[in-house]
From TrEMBL, chain A:
Presence of keyword Hydrolase: yes
Record protein name field: DExH-box helicase 34
Keyword set includes Nucleotide-binding: yes
Native organism: Pelusios castaneus
Domain Helicase C-terminal: 375-543
Alphabetized UniProt keyword annotations: ATP-binding, Helicase, Hydrolase, Nucleotide-binding
SUPFAM superfamilies in UniProt: P-loop containing nucleoside triphosphate hydrolases
Region (Disordered): 1-22, 77-96, 708-767, 1081-1106
From TrEMBL, chain B:
Domain Cysteine-rich DPF motif, chain residue ranges per copy: 13-105
Protein origin, superkingdom: Eukaryota
Protein name as it appears in the record: Cysteine-rich DPF motif domain-containing protein 1
Family: Belongs to the CDPF1 family.
Length: 1134, 124
């Protein structure tokens, strides 16, 4: 065997066979034959695997190397010095003549095969037909290859261990473990690169702690840390290292350490306040001061005394350590130096005259940035590698620098310019990790996403604009505002540090050192600049008492807390005493915005769960619609069929449903489908995951009947089973070859960047596997999804869905400006109660088709009387919106159009009327004028009834789920409500819609009245008790309706305009005002569902002015009755 | 999963020379699940942690055929020439080895003088 190997090694021309026939190793047929022999299913290398490809590459290199070596050795044929193995007995028998083969410590057992090949019958050419020389040549190469892969992996192992040992934190291991043993809380402070996130969990595990949870602010960090820690510990803990994020978990009973998001740990506290499942909690990156992180610390501080056995390790950059240590009663601090190379800082403030000369101040002037690129080109030779990372405040700024830098790059051929921000597609974000060709530098133009979230190796230069755009929250307007600020000194240092990760670096700062000194020391913690609704809700459900007195790390502004409490009360999540209502209790458990949570709950009542789940999910993720720098008309055309004339939420619903259809029809075709429409498919996957989570949550809370999976026939079951097995195989195969290899960027990459090219995400395309699609099919029941997505909504369902959405979104309403019809399409403006002059977000369907919102359009065609001068119409519309975002302008995001009158009557928190209800004011800002008093009254009356019925059913549903008796709702009642709502919406009444001016608002109400001036009409609102309103005047009818409190309205004639009328029910013939007529009719109408008045009388109702004692002779009872009630009572005794 | 889990608890390999430590899951000449491959020496083997393919193994080290000390397969600690030899043993018996090996070692020596060897780093 060895002699054959030797012969092969000396073979100078391996491609030509000894038998004179042509032997071509690169011929696919040859390779296939060899693979059949050696790469069988049971062999170490399998045919067609990644491994076999690598082998052939190796094989070619080996052959080249050997033929070169053979030539050299022939030239200098030095006689090999004879070794003398006689000295030691252990050395006897070592071969005298050297052969590299002897250096390989393994062998391949394919003897059985070889025997077959060579043929024991002596004919060496039969069998496979491969000459023995070739076989041995191949065999030897295979052994070399295996040896090579062993060396490669071993080198990795050595490198890994060496790197671990070299981490700064290694020196502090014992100190840290001692501190943890002796204290309940320890703070580890260490800067970037000190290794705390990867090592501390491992130290704790090795020291014998288990049930360790390590929280991270970002999901992606949970996954990568779990992988890294598993890897570094050489998987010796196996599945004892796991992660848990919103939709994914690798956690098992064997898990000893789990990386999870802060939000998720908070959810666990909510379920099990003492966190009994953990022994050690590590809170990482606490210096980032995210809302959840701050809150988590507060919760843990309360928990510690109750769990004296629980250890808490806070990990932070060396920022404001005293704050954390102090918050936990002077916890000991283990301070670890970071590992950064020296970084030169160059302050290069933009000269004032240049800043002043910028003609368009909204647009960032790219010249100062270009100067830095030039300076780098001048100062550093291109062969010295090192990339540039530019920090800008926002996407628009990135656009202008990108454009200029690309022009410069095309000119110099020395740069590849790439954008980086969170709204880019994943594939485009990934490009920043690719390598530039030799002699070319990457220039990454980024938002502050690269400050902490994304780490790019190889950066040597940092260019810092010193600016950041941050969402700030205006609690008064309840508005998110994206504003530009100077960064903090801590952020500036973080940005600078990005230049020194792999070697000494340079940081250019486009501001003066004096500016730097004037920066705030730390960024504003999130808790001080965001809406706190969800936080307050969660606090309430954890029973943490009054959020105003909760001992936060640093308390949020009082106004934000007040707004949040008020908002939650408005939304019905908190009651008057700020306790959780049933719906609030449920909302607290849904990991979504209060508004979205409400929509979910509301939808389940009308059997709209399918579409509502989708809508809620789609509204909770970033929009899948990308906004490229240069709009693509083809994209817009392709998107058009998805657009709903009712509004953006329904467009999202259509999009998701269509996507599910595409997925189930053509496997893997959805990626292309999305690309053609300029959509980020990843967001749809997220929505699908979220949808499933919502579905499970609703089921858990008894709001969704558990659809017992229909018993399928065995054939279907089998085929589903087979399908899943195949999918699992696909995923495993993908995971084996996972780890996206870095590609080399093309010089013009940046420019082609925006039109995402074919080989975008991952390298899977070549093999035709869409791993996302595989995961999707494994996670979801596609048939079920498709069934839900495939059934089109009937127009009634659509109407109800819009109503549900609107009720959820209320009071987020905007009214079109009065003069919109005279404005250009792009200049349409809208007003909310607190904010005026808002525009539509450019992605909004109404931005493209504003005619959908116009009142004076087709209404006339239907023959309806239109009096546009007075603004009378039956088709006024309002926009319900999901959010309000302010950047350079305030924008309405995700709008839905709804009929104004009906929406306001059904949802207003406060509805004020004049005496004949021809004037209605909703929530003190929108005035409705309904000239037809009777119609107004009718609508109002049915609104009251519908609201009561709806509220009643909802409470019944929410309470029902609390009690053990899962008492189902009466389907008849639901159907009645459903029908009632639909009829209500079909009412066509002419009315005006007017936004009250500030002056009008001031003089809106008559104010408190000493005597009940207007006569009460008891039956008007179905016997509801009418109490004088002490603030507005008039009478409070229900918790939202105040009757006759509007000032400035002569209610004199309402009394005069009586006309004779016969009641169809009791045949009473009398002169009535319209109001009196309604009043009578309401109390007279035989109502089967209504409790008879006798029983109502049992409730402690004060006798109203019109009631008088009445004794019925027939039933021998005494009552307090009004005259109509007497009539009605008499009718009961025929 | 299970096979690799039960293979976990074999023990920890430590190189006598450089101090490299790693858990091993198999000791012998025939690592599990690799039918066609045999080792030519009794070795300490772990599952290759650098590939998700669970049938791939990684040889950590073995005993020096002369002094019987456990050494890793790293080129600064040992070499294989029909058998495993630790570097100190080779240096003592240099004449027993063919010229190619001696040249190889010389090369390495001059190399490791200019670069700090891994030994210094890896030992803590």
């Amino acid at each position: 065997m060895e002699s054959r190997a030797k012969k092969r090694c000396r073979d100078p021309s391996p491609s030509r066979g000894h038998q004179g026939g042509l032997w071509d190793w690169s011929c696919p047929e040859t390779r296939r034959r060899m693979e059949e022999l050696y790469f069988r299913e049971q062999d170490y290398i399998r045919a067609g695997s990644e491994d076999s490809c690598q082998f052939w590459t190796f094989f070619e290199r080996l052959q080249r190397f050997q033929s070169l070596k053979a030539e050299r050795e022939q030239a200098v044929l030095s006689p090999s010095a004879q070794a003398d193995p006689s000295a030691t007995p252990g050395l006897a028998g070592l071969p005298q003549e050297y052969d590299p083969r002897y250096r390989i410590n393994l062998s391949v057992l394919s003897g059985d095969m070889e025997e077959l090949v060579r043929g024991k019958r002596g004919d060496r050419r039969r069998g496979s037909g491969v000459p023995a020389e070739r076989l041995s040549q191949f065999r030897a190469a295979l052994l070399h290859y295996l040896d090579f892969t062993q060396k490669q992996s071993f080198a990795k192992l050595v490198k890994l261990q060496r790197e671990r040992v070299a981490l700064p934190i290694t020196q502090y291991r014992d100190r840290l473990l001692r501190a943890v043993a002796q204290n309940q809380v320890v703070v580890v402070a260490g800067d970037t690169g000190c290794g705390k996130s990867t090592q501390v969990p491992q130290y704790l595990l090795a020291a014998g702690y288990s049930h360790v949870a390590c929280t991270q602010p970002r999901r992606i960090a949970c996954i990568s840390l779990a992988k890294r820690v598993g890897f570094e510990s050489l998987h010796q803990y196996g599945d004892e290292v796991g992660y848990q994020i919103r939709f994914e978990s690798t956690r098992s009973p064997a898990t000893k350490i789990v990386f999870l998001t802060e939000g998720l740990l908070l959810r666990q506290v909510q379920r099990e306040p003492a966190l009994p499942g953990y022994q050690v909690l590590i809170a990482d990156e606490v210096h980032e001061r995210h809302l959840h992180s701050d809150f988590l610390l507060g919760v843990l501080r309360r928990l510690l005394p109750a769990r004296p056995d629980l250890k808490l390790v806070l990990m932070s950059a060396t920022i404001n350590i005293r704050l954390f240590a102090g918050y936990f009663g002077g916890a000991p601090v283990v301070q670890v130096p970071g590992r950064l190379f020296p970084i030169t800082i160059i302050y290069q403030p933009i000269p004032q005259e240049e800043a002043a000369a910028n003609r368009k101040p909204e647009r960032l002037d790219p010249r100062p940035y270009l100067r830095v690129l030039q300076a780098i080109d001048h100062k550093y030779p291109p062969e010295e590698r090192g990339d540039l990372l530019i920090f800008l405040s926002g996407v628009a700024e990135i656009g202008s620098v990108l454009e200029a830098a690309q022009t410069y790059a095309t000119h110099t051929q020395r740069w590849v310019v790439l954008p980086l921000h969170s709204t880019l597609s994943i594939a485009e974000q990934d490009k920043v990790f690719d390598m530039p060709p030799p002699g070319v530098r990457k220039c990454i133009v980024s938002t502050n996403i690269a400050e902490t979230s994304v780490t790019i190796d190889g950066v040597r230069f940092v260019l810092d604009s010193g600016k950041v755009k941050e969402l700030s929250y205006d609690p008064q307007a309840k508005l998110q505002r994206l504003q530009e600020f100077w960064i903090s000194r801590a952020s500036a240092e973080q940005r600078k540090g990005r230049a020194g990760r792999t070697g000494p670096g340079v940081c250019y700062r486009l501001y003066a050192e004096s500016d730097y000194d004037a920066f705030a020391p730390y960024p504003v913690p999130e808790i001080q600049r965001v809406a706190l609704d969800a936080l307050v809700l969660q606090m309430k459900s954890m029973g943490l008492g009054d959020p105003r007195t909760f001992p936060f790390l640093e308390p949020p502004p009082q106004a934000s807390l007040e707004t949040a409490v008020r908002y939650l009360r408005e939304q019905g999540a908190l009651d008057g005493a700020e306790g959780l209502t049933p719906i609030g209790n449920l909302l607290a458990q849904l990991p979504v915005d209060v508004v979205i949570g409400k929509i979910l709950v509301l939808g389940s009542l009308f059997r709209l769960a399918g579409p509502v789940l989708t809508l809620a999910a789609a509204l909770s993720v970033q929009s899948p619609f990308l906004r490229p720098m240069r709009p693509d008309p083809d994209c817009a055309t392709a998107r058009r069929p998805l657009e709903s004339p009712h509004g953006d939420p329904l467009t999202l619903l259509n999009t998701f449903n269509e996507w599910v259809q595409v997925k189930s029809e053509r496997a893997g075709g959805s990626r292309k489908w999305c690309r053609r429409r300029g959509m980020e498919e990843h967001r749809l996957y997220e929505a699908a995951n979220l949808r499933r989570q919502f579905q499970e949550l609703l089921r858990d809370h008894g709001l969704l009947e558990t659809t017992a999976a229909r018993p399928r026939d065995s054939y279907a079951r089998q085929s589903r089973h087979r399908e899943r097995r195949e999918l699992h195989q696909l995923r495993r195969r993908h995971e084996e070859t996972e780890g996206r290899k870095r590609k080399v960027l093309k010089l013009q990459e940046g420019e082609a960047g925006s039109t995402s090219d074919e080989e975008g995400a991952g390298g899977d395309r070549s093999r035709g596997i869409d791993i996302q699609d595989v995961k999707f099919k494994l996670r979801h029941n596609v048939d079920e999804l498709q069934a839900a997505a495939g059934t089109a909504l009937s127009s009634n369902q659509l109407t109800l869905l819009k109503l549900v959405l609107c009720r959820g979104l209320y009071p987020q309403l905007a009214v079109p400006d009065h003069y919109n019809s005279c404005r250009k399409d792009s200049d349409q403006i809208f007003h909310t109660k607190n904010k005026q002059g808002i525009v539509l977000h450019p992605t909004c369907v109404f931005a493209a088709s504003p005619e959908l919102l116009q009142v004076t359009e087709k209404g006339a065609a239907e023959g309806r009387r239109q009096d546009s001068q007075e603004g009378l119409s039956s088709r006024h519309q309002l926009l319900a919106f999901v959010s309000l975002l302010e950047t350079n302008k305030p924008y309405l995001v995700n709008c839905l159009r709804v009929p104004a009158l009906q929406a306001l009557l059904l949802f207003s928190r406060a509805l004020d009327t004049n005496a004949d209800c021809t004037r209605l004011v909703a929530d003190s800002w929108l005035e409705l004028g309904v000239p037809d008093s009777e119609a107004a009254l009718r609508l109002l009356a049915s609104a009251i009834q519908l609201r009561a019925a709806w509220e009643g059913l909802l409470n019944q549903q929410l309470e029902g789920r609390c009690g053990e008796s899962q008492r189902a709702l009466d389907p008849r009642e639901v159907a009645t409500l459903r029908q009632g709502l639909l009829e209500f919406l079909e009412h066509e009444v002419q009315y005006t819609l007017h936004r009250l001016t500030a002056l009008e608002k001031q003089n809106l109400y008559v104010g408190p009245q000493t005597v009940a001036a207007a006569l009460g009409l008891p039956g008007l609102f179905q016997g509801a008790e009418m109490m004088p309103d002490e603030e507005k005047g008039g009478y409070r009818v229900t918790d939202f309706l105040t009757y006759n409190c509007l000032a400035g309205d002569a209610d004199l004639y309402s009394d005069c305009l009586r006309s004779f009328w016969t009641c169809p029910h009791c045949a009473l013939y009398m002169p009535f005002t319209p109001l009196e007529r309604m009043s009578h009719e309401n109390s007279c109408r035989p109502q089967t569902q209504e409790a008879p008045p006798e029983e109502v009388a049992g409730s402690p109702a004060k006798p109203s002015a019109l009631q008088r004692p009445y004794r019925c002779d027939v039933c021998q009872q005494d009552f307090m009755f009004t005259s109509t009630e007497i009539l009605r009572h008499r009718k009961k005794h025929p | 999963m299970e096979s690799h889990k039960e293979a976990q608890l074999k023990g920890v390999f430590e190189c006598h020379l450089c101090g490299l430590t790693a858990p091993y899951s198999y000791y012998g000449q025939k690592p599990p699940n690799t039918r066609s491959v045999v080792l030519l020496e009794e070795s300490y083997v772990m599952k290759d942690p650098f590939t998700p393919d669970k049938d791939k193994f990684l040889i950590l080290g073995s005993q020096c055929s002369l002094c019987n000390r456990r050494v890793c397969v790293g080129t600064e600690c040992s070499l294989f020439y029909c058998k495993r030899f630790c570097l100190p043993c080779i240096n003592e018996n240099l004449q027993a080895f063919p010229l190619e090996i001696r040249q190889d070692l010389d090369k390495k020596k001059s190399h490791s003088k200019s670069h700090p060897s891994k030994n210094a780093d890896a030992r803590t």
